[in-house]
Design a protein that fits this description.
Elements: H1 41-54, E1 60-61, H2 62-69, H3 73-85, E2 89-91, E3 97-100, H4 102-113, H5 117-132, E4 135-142, E5 145-152, E6 167-169, H6 174-181, H7 185-192, H8 208-221, E7 224-227, E8 234-242, E9 248-256, H9 262-282, H10 294-300
Antiparallel strand pairs: 1-3, 2-3, 4-5, 4-9, 5-6, 7-8, 8-9
Helix pairs in contact: 1-3, 2-3, 5-9, 6-8
């Protein structure tokens, strides 16, 4: 169905440890990893050291690294000297301190140059659909619209009908709100100016003040909801992801209202938020969601549950 504004409205048809007391930090084991017995403990410890610098804003000494990773001082010293010799660490400004070296930047650049962003987005939405059984999407922001770049179909007979390449007004979609919330309030105002908010359904946000209110909740929680605003019979939850250069994506899961309740919506939100964070990590960025746990996020911005109009 096409709206008066010319939009085609979507229709509804185990972490490894070399010693029991030591815990690996940082990057989780790869989804593709299946042979834990083949992990080399010394190499794992060296990678732990590099990952420790990823989450620390400070330069660190060998004793500090050893204490944080529960390693003997001698082991930490030897590993750090090896990383120093290979260029993965360098001397810091402080006495006996270290920081990440230039070889880590070279590795990051090599990885980034080999990334196909749309392929990664497609893989992310495929995982969301595998985990939820519902239709999922990835989109980017273009002005005040979203452009859908990837889609994975639901396994259910009744599902949302949509297509890659579709454009929709950002304020009427979960992915759009997730992407807008990644901008500053001033940038959102500048993008919209005096432009009216085009309605797609009776539930589409009609005022800019309400849009700003929802975007604030999304910024606080990392979750954006579409309460039958693009389609009378479909609700969505979305979360944003970013690459290392700041390019924004959002991924969402779209669910017919007949399969939407508090338990289901909460599960969908958790999957989408986690997959968005994993996508950011694969694209070379890190997302801490302002340090909020998922339980805190869902409490701050709970899912819409009242009966849709009909």
């Amino acid at each position: 169905m096409t709206t008066q504004a010319g939009y085609d409205r979507p229709s509804c048809a185990v972490q490894f440890s070399a010693a029991p007391e030591r815990v690996l930090i940082g990057w989780p084991l790869s989804r593709e990893h299946s042979d834990l017995s083949a992990i080399v403990p010394a190499l794992a410890r060296g990678l732990d050291i590099l990952e420790l610098f990823l989450v620390s804003d400070d330069e660190l000494t060998a004793p500090e690294v050893g204490a944080r990773l529960q390693l003997p001082r001698s082991t930490a010293y030897q590993l750090m000297q090896t990383l120093l010799a290979r260029g993965y660490l360098e001397r810091g400004d402080g006495a006996r301190t270290f920081r990440l070296g230039p070889r880590t930047l070279e590795l990051g650049n090599a990885y980034g140059n080999g990334i196909d962003l749309v392929r990664e987005a497609r893989a992310a939405v495929t995982r969301v659909t595998e985990l939820t059984g519902e239709t999922s999407h990835a989109a980017v922001l273009s002005g005040t619209e979203v452009f859908y770049v990837a889609r994975a179909e639901s396994t259910h007979a009744v599902q949302m009908v949509s297509a890659v390449g579709t454009r929709l007004p950002a304020h009427a979609t979960g992915v759009g709100k997730a992407l807008l919330a990644s901008l500053s309030e001033q940038e959102v105002r500048t993008r919209y100016g005096d432009q009216p908010l085009v309605p797609l359904t009776r539930r589409t946000i009609a005022s800019f003040s309400e849009l700003e209110s929802q975007l604030r909740r999304t910024r606080d929680s990392g979750l954006a909801w579409d309460d039958c605003e693009a389609n009378d019979n479909v609700r969505c939850v979305a979360a944003s992801a970013t690459d290392r250069k700041g390019l924004l994506f959002a991924i969402s899961v779209s669910v017919p209202t007949m399969r939407w309740d508090l338990g289901a919506a909460t599960r969908y939100a958790k999957v989408v938020r986690e997959e968005a964070d994993l996508l950011s990590t694969r694209l070379g960025a890190s997302r801490d969601r302002a340090g909020r746990s998922f339980a805190e996020a869902i409490a701050l911005n709970p899912p819409p549950l009242d009966a849709p109009p009909g």
